[in-house]
Amino acid sequence: MHVLRHLIQNAIMAFPPVRNAASKYHHTGRNGDDAGVHDTLARYAGAGGSASFAGKAILELGPGQTPHVLLAMRAAGASRAVGADIQRYQEQEAAKEQGVEIALYDGARLPFPDATFDKVFSCDVMEHVRNPRPLVAEMRRVLVPGGTVFARVDLRDHYYLAVEDRWLTCLKFSTALWNSMTWYRSSYVNRLRLSDWNRVFAEAGFVADYAVIERSERLAELHDQGALPASALRLDRDDASTYRFDVWLTAAK
Ligand SMILES: C[S@@+](CC[C@H](N)C(=O)[O-])C[C@H]1O[C@@H](n2cnc3c(N)ncnc32)[C@H](O)[C@@H]1O
Q1: 80-85 and 206-215 as β-strands: parallel, antiparallel, unpaired?
Q2: Which of these, 17, 78, 146, 223, could form a disulfide with 240 (CB 3.0-4.6 Å)?
Q3: Which residue, judged by its Cα, is nearest atom 1 of ligand 1?
Q4: How many domains does the chain have?
């Protein structure tokens, strides 16, 4: 990575008007990808199928440019479908006409009363959250007793998604330098590993049930060879090789 280039790009993106203008050119994920939308829906519906959305109030964290998952949940009978994002990717009025609410917020305090939602989900979002601990506690706060969270979390360095050997390159940098290079940019990742997420979920009072844990044999091999950044070598082999997971969270009794 060219550190100076990233420092400059991040400094420019610190200005909200620049960030807003740039967001028009982002591709946030599943927009225009029908198969991706159906895959997300199927993962989140789980064994109950889309009937599990009927009558439920659902919150999606970070829908980006993709209202489609929430729209499909409404079509399956959800009583309320709300997306909360830190960036204005969708027009609130247009979404509302289709039965979906879009809320913009500061990324810290969810703008909803306690116990508002039966289900909270996020797809490829938690890794981008700047302050994950308080936000996971917020997810718990807005959930009704007995409610569930589903999250798909991608732990890879988003600047090198296409280069498996570089999926842990982001760990090369001190926190201060990494944040100075990426904090205001959409590809920022918080660099938590699976064991860190485990702790975050437990501290917020959740029990975590992992439906999918994806590991890279290549990263495990590089770990064995000592060919990863020093901070990645300090991780245990499982943490170093895990690059994505799906998790269900329920409140601990
Ligand atoms: C990679 S995109 C994923 C978009 C969508 N979920 C999808 O799968 O197509 C990440 C999204 O997370 C949003 N995001 C980042 N931090 C957030 C936070 N603290 N709360 C809610 N959304 C956040 C970004 O603005 C962006 O829309």
Answers
A1: unpaired
A2: 223
A3: 28
A4: 1
Q: For ligand 1, what atom is nearest to the CA of residue 64?
A: 27
Pull the structure tokens for residue 180: 């100075």
Phi then psi for residue 243, to 5 deg, are: -120, -10
Q: What is the pLDDT along the chain (253 residues), one digit of tens a residue?
A: 689 999 999 999 999 999 988 888 877 777 777 888 888 888 888 878 888 999 999 999 999 988 889 999 999 999 999 999 999 887 888 888 889 999 999 999 999 999 999 999 999 999 999 999 999 999 999 999 999 999 999 999 999 999 999 999 999 999 999 999 999 999 999 999 999 999 999 999 999 999 999 999 999 999 999 999 999 999 999 999 999 999 999 998 7
The reported pTM is 0.94
Ligand 1 neighbour 70 (Cβ under 6 A)? no
Hey, which of 20, 24, 25, 28 would you mutate to test ligand 1's pocket, going by the most ligand atoms within 8 Å of its Cβ?
A: 28
Q: Is 29 in the pocket of ligand 1 (CB under 6 A)?
A: yes
Structural domain of 168? 3-251
Q: CA–CA separation, 247 vs 11, rounded Å?
A: 34
Contact 103, 82 (CB under 8 A): yes
Distance CA 35, CA 37 (A): 5
Atom 4 of ligand 1, nearest CA residue: 64
CATH number at residue 170: 3.40.50.150
Tokens 């991706």 correspond to: 36
132 lines ligand 1 (CB under 6 A): no
Tell me, using a 6 A CB cutoff, whether residue 251 lines ligand 1. no
